[in-house]
Amino acid sequence: MKVHGECHCGAITYEAEIDPGLAVICHCTDCQIFSGSPFRATVPAPAESFNLNGAPRLYVKVAESGRKRAQAFCSTCGSSIYSADAEAPTRYNIRLGSLRERAEIAAQAQIWRSSAQEWALNVSALPARSQDDFVEPPRRT
Q: pLDDT per position in the chain (141 positions), as tens?
């Protein structure tokens, strides 16, 4: 599937060929911290199909295994774009939120489930409002 993506401000754009059946949700604590949310959704793209326009800022994270992973984001708006091996990327793990086609790609698996925030696994029971009905939540005293 051909996909197109961009950061929030449009300074970085890309296109790639992906297999939507490989999309996953990652619950690891690093993904929680990097995304600022309880999980992060990604889909891999082979390096040869990933065409990037713009210059993302890279942060290289060293895993417990010693493996170096480049985390790419827009230095202007902060949007997360991808992660990849820092030294010899063969694939780019694209952040689903940056894809125009994100509504067409459903995660097929969860990884690092042992780190999941249990409260975030089933939000369907929470009250739902449209953006027009949004009201600031009450402050706790």
A: 999 999 999 999 999 999 999 999 998 888 888 888 888 999 999 999 999 999 999 999 998 778 899 999 999 999 999 999 999 999 999 999 999 999 999 999 998 888 888 888 888 888 888 776 666 777 776
Beta bridge pairs of residue 93: 44, 83
C-alpha closest to that of 94 among 21, 9, 27, 3: 3
Residue spans of the domains in the chain: they are 2-117
| One CATH from 2.30.130.10, 2.170.150.70, 4.10.320.10, 1.10.10.10 for 2-117 | 2.170.150.70
* pTM for the model: 0.85
Specify the pairing of strand 80-85 against strand 24-26.
unpaired
